[in-house]
Structures are given as structure tokens and as C-alpha cells.
Design brief:
Elements (H helix, E strand, L loop, with lengths): L1 E10 L4 E7 L7 H14 L8 E12 L6
Antiparallel strand pairs: 1-2, 1-3
């Protein structure tokens, strides 16, 4: 079993941009993720035309894999 943090942003020129991180900390809080997302927007950390405008969502998914062979 593994986990994945997905942070989604609204782009200034329309559309969305998502960033995925594998195996986030178990005690990660919504406040911590929100702060990091604000920092990403303020730093213009990704080369997105027009930049990132605002936070859209953040979620942690738990993934179970059943290997068949």
C-alpha cells in the first residue's frame, strides 16, 4: 500500500495543473499543504504560461496494489 498527495491549481490562462508527490508524511496537515501551495504560487515554481492563479484542491490517496503475477 502506498499514498500519493495531489495538489491541484487553477492556471491564470484557464485550465488546471496538478503536482503529485509519492508517500507524503503520515502526519501532514491541511494547513501545511495549503502553506506549501501558497509558496508554490508565490514563487512561480513551475513554467506554466501565465502562471498559477490559485489553489483548486489537495488530496491524499491511499493506493492498494494487488500483484497478479
Amino acid at each position: 500500500m502506498s499514498t500519493k498527495l495531489t495538489m491541484s491549481f487553477k492556471c491564470a490562462e484557464g485550465g488546471t495543473f496538478s503536482c503529485n508527490l509519492d508517500d507524503p508524511l503520515d502526519d501532514l496537515t491541511a494547513v501545511q499543504v495549503s502553506t506549501v501551495m501558497d509558496d508554490i504560487i508565490a514563487a512561480d515554481a513551475f513554467d506554466i504560461k501565465g502562471g498559477l492563479k490559485e489553489k483548486a484542491s489537495a488530496e491524499i490517496a491511499t493506493i492498494t496494489t494487488n500483484k497478479l503475477f
